[in-house]
Amino acid sequence: EKHWDAGIKVVRYLLKTKDVGIVYDGLLGTQLEAYSDADWAGNRDDRRSVSGMLLMLCGAPVVWRSTFQKTVALSSTEAEYMALSDCVKECIWMRRLLKDIGAEQVGATVIYEDNQGAMALAKNVGYQARTKHIDIRYHFIREKVVSNEVELEYMDTKNQLADFMTKGLSSKTLRYLMMRSNATSALTRWLGNEAASGYLLTEIFLASPEAVKDVNSKRSAHVVIEDGVLVTQGKRAELQIDASGSSAVYVSAPDTAVSVQQLILEATESAKIEYSVESIDPRSELQMGAQGSSRIAVLSSTVKTSQLELDALNSGEICIDAQEVKATWRDIQGKRKVSMPNAVKKHGTTGCVASKLPARKAAQITASPTSATGYVDNNDLDDDLDNDLNDSTED
Predict the structure, then answer these.
(1) Which of 13, 250, 297, 390 reaches 20 to 30 Å from 345, CA-CA?
(2) Which residues, listed in sequence order, are joined to residue 299 by a DSSP beta bridge?
(3) 179 has pLDDT over 70
């Protein structure tokens, strides 16, 4: 039974992390930062502590390690100090490597630590008889602090990214720390009631998905959706597209009339959204927001809505290329950057030009066993294993 439970945990791990990847953001620069943590007496057999470290570059991990300490620590401060020693050595090595490849570090490398005692010991704040026995080989940390190669800063345990390198954590905490360290779904292509998203230079091409409800595109991703943009789910149908970080989302369905209760298009950080459909008839609300040099272009014959809300702020641009734009209520912010060339002359004369989409191979879409909507995922487990995964208690 123990072996079966262990096997279930392994399969659960593989199932839930199959799309997880490390995402590096070039906009964040190449300044190195590190996180150091320890689980005091974490090994129940010999009471050795566990050291964990995480070195971050461009907003994501480049070095990470979890090891048992070679000696038994007599206090949590000692355990944290020994872990900090390993982290400092790794930082010094990484600084030299970055210098060799042309990314020399400016100033000290910040190491985040959640133990005030270890930080005080490293900074040599006063004499403490209880720590006199610590081997001198660990005290080179002080030398590196004085030489301004590393700098220690306090980080509360909740936000200590190296925490999951030292012990098992709850699913909620683990997901939060993974999100903070940019270890997230590197490529997510679920359809149905989920999202189509991509990171980095990946491209997702979806033909006739028939069930896209939300699209979340980040970090230079290109998401292309053609035909069958949305399955209307009664009067509560909603479509939301969010693009950020120089990414682009193209909805190319010029022969499709979209009728949803709410249509939301949000573009930030130089992102681009191009929405090309035959007609837009949101029964309740149409929201568009473009900020930070981003651009939203809507190409449609008619746009009708009871509520039209347009926000073009911080060099953001919104262009609606439609012969007819009707709205019972309008709220337009940043009118200089809002263009409706064919419908309303006072809102500018700059037209929206449709992009030429490159030819791609469509993603394979299979029928969901529980609904008529499609999704991109062919790695199904058998029913018995699914039940075991759902029934097992998560650590």
Answers:
(1) 250
(2) 276, 321
(3) yes
Structure tokens at 233: 């789910």
Give the confidence band of 372 by pLDDT, cuts at 50, 70, 90.
Answer: very low
Name the residue with tokens 């006199």.
Answer: 132
Instruction: Determine how β-strand 195-198 pairs with β-strand 187-188.
Output: antiparallel
| One-letter-per-residue 3-state SS of the chain | CHHHHHHHHHHHHHHHCCCEEECCCHHHCCCCEEEEEEECCCCCCCCCCEEEEEEEECCEEEEEEEEECCCCCCCHHHHHHHHHHHHHHHHHHHHHHHHHCCCCCCCCEEEEECCHHHHHHHCCCCCCHHHCCCCHHHHHHHHHHHCCCEEEEECCHHHCHHHHHCCCCCHHHHHHHHHHCCEEECEECCCCCCEEEECCCCEEEEECCCCCCEEEECCCCEEEEECCCCCCCHHHCEEEEEECCCCEEEEEEEEEEECCCEEEEEECCCCEEEEEEEEECCCCEEEEEEECCCEEEEECCEEEEEEEEEEEECCCEEEEECCEEEEEEEEEECHHHEECCCCCHHHCCCCCCCCCCCCCCCCCCEECCCCCCEECCCCCCCHHHHHHHHHCCCC
Task: Give the tokens for residue 102.
Answer: 């042309």
Radius of gyration of the chain (CA): 27
Indicate the burial class of 143 (C-beta count within 10 angstroms; 0-12, 13-18, 19 or more): exposed
Yes or no: say if 213 and 239 are a contact pair by the CB < 8 Å rule: yes
Domains and CATH numbers, the chain: 22-180 (3.30.420.10), 185-375 (no CATH)
Amino acid symbol at 217: S
Closest listed residue to residue 148, CA positions, set 172, 123, 115, 166: 123
The label of the residue with tokens 């279930």 reads: 8
pLDDT in tens, 30-75: 899 999 999 999 888 899 999 999 999 988 899 999 999 999 998 9
pTM reported for the whole predicted model: 0.53
Cα dist from 123 to 34, 35, 106, whole Å = 17, 17, 21
**Which among 234, 216, 237, 212 is positioned nearest to 225, based on CA atoms?**
212
**Closest alpha carbon to 28 in 96, 103, 93, 114:** 103
Q: List the structure tokens of 77.
A: 């401060």
- As a whole-number percent, the residues of the chain with pLDDT over 90 amount to 29
